Amino acid sequence: MQASDKTITLAALAETLGAELIGGDGRTVISGVNTIRQAGPAEVCFLTVEKYRPLLDRTQAAAVLVAEPVDGCPVAQLVVDEVNTALITVLRYFEPPLKRLSGIDPAAAIDPTARVDATAAIGPQAVIGPDAHIGPDTVIGPGCVIGQETTIGANCRLDANVVVYHRCRIGDDCIIQANATIGSTGFGYVSIDGQHELVPHNGGVIIEDAVEIGANTCIDRAKFGNTVIETGTKIDNLVQIGHNVRIGRASLLAGQCGLAGSAVLGDGVVLAGQCGLADHVVVGDRTIAGGGTGITVDVGSDQKVFGFPARDIRAELKSVAVYQKLPELAKELKLLSKKVQRLEAAKNHQDRSQTDR
Questions:
Q1: Superfamily of domain covering 109-314
Q2: What is the mean pLDDT of residues 15-19?
Q3: Contact indicator for 142, 125 with CB cutoff of 8 Å
Q4: Comparing 94-98, 206-210, 217-221, 252-256, which segment has the lowest mean pLDDT?
Q5: Residues with catalytic roles
Q6: What is the pLDDT of residue 1?
Q7: Residue 108 · residue 124 · CB < 8 Å
Q8: Residue 88 · residue 106 · CB < 8 Å
Q9: CA 106 from centre of chain
Q10: Of 5, 33, 210, 282, which one's alpha carbon is 20 to 30 angstroms from that of 263?
Q11: What is the per-residue pLDDT for 4?
């Protein structure tokens, strides 16, 4: 099924991408993009991982996006500087048209003191609280709740059922996907007389410009001050960010990461899936943590860490390699132990023989 009703000739696509077209017929009509395995004769595919190169011999695609020419390629080649950049351009061209919300739905509930820009759109069953502010060209999806005195900037998109609690601030050009929650009370308790007493969380959340937040992600409000997500950071689905966390510019957090209260990430940090950070831990700029890493102490800038507890990825991978050999090493150790016992028994026997003489 075509994702879009748009088409483009192969020659025109090459011109759009600034690509060198090798082979094929420039008049071929392209109507979509797909994987090497699934692409049809009116689609282009792409090659970014060398292990998929043999699949080109069986692809039905009209052409393939590649970073350098492939010898013996049976289909036309679009040679580009960066395959992923070109792929984004192609995907955007063929993006399926979706009807955009416009205006204010009659079923929305907007407090009289709220300010909603005339160009903003508010979906059905959305609730805009007292003194909230919705900026130009921002879309608030169905069922969203925007709390008291919360500000959302220009050209943002909040998908269905997003909740932004009171006194939070979201910048321009942000995307928050369905069911995400911003500004919920953090998990901060003090035990008093055998009871767990919730510490008041009087702070807020600041989401700066061009931040993207995945579905079902939760970002807790601060006890005091603000939890802060800086410009350009992208957060996947099902991520938990605790109170007073600060995440620097242009960082990437993959699904199921969890950051405990007051953790700090620098700029350009990458956390792969299921990473966990202890409270008050600081991770330096541009550091990368592999999937499932547990960071319990501060990590400097420009590091690559892995494992639990986190340590240099090269050392951890060596340990993993040894761990995988433990059953074999245990057998060898057992054999060596028996051999040593036999040698010691023989030596003891020889010593007693000499003493008897």
A1: Hexapeptide repeat proteins (2.160.10.10)
A2: 96
A3: yes
A4: 94-98
A5: 243
A6: 40
A7: yes
A8: no
A9: 36
A10: 210
A11: 66
- Give the separation between CA 272 and CA 243, rounded to whole angstroms: 21
If phi > 0 it is left, if psi is from -120 to 50 it is alpha, else beta; for residue 16 that is alpha
Give tens-digit pLDDT for 175-207: 999 999 999 999 999 999 999 999 999 999 999
- Check: CB of residue 55 under 8 Å from CB of residue 37: yes
- Looking at residue 72, its amino acid is G
Q: How far apart are alpha carbons 92 and 298 in whole angstroms?
A: 40
145 neighbors 127 (Cβ within 8 angstroms):
yes
**What's the pLDDT at 355?**
66
pLDDT at 2 over 50: no
Does the pLDDT at position 307 exceed 80?
yes
Q: Of 52, 57, 59, which is closest to residue 37 (Cα–Cα)? A: 59
At the second CATH level, the architecture of 8-93 is 3-Layer(aba) Sandwich (3.40)
165-184 b/e (C-beta count within 10 Å ≥ 16 → b):
bbbbbbbbbbbbbbbbbbbb
Average pLDDT over residues 213-235: 98
Q: What is the DSSP string of 295-353?
A: E-S-B-TT-EEETTTTEEHHHHHHHHHHHHTHHHHHHHHHHHHHHHHHHHHHHHHHHHH
pTM: 0.85
- What does the DSSP assignment read for 103-127? SB-TT-EE-TT-EE-TT-EE-TT-E
Whether 31 shows a pLDDT value over 70: the answer reads yes
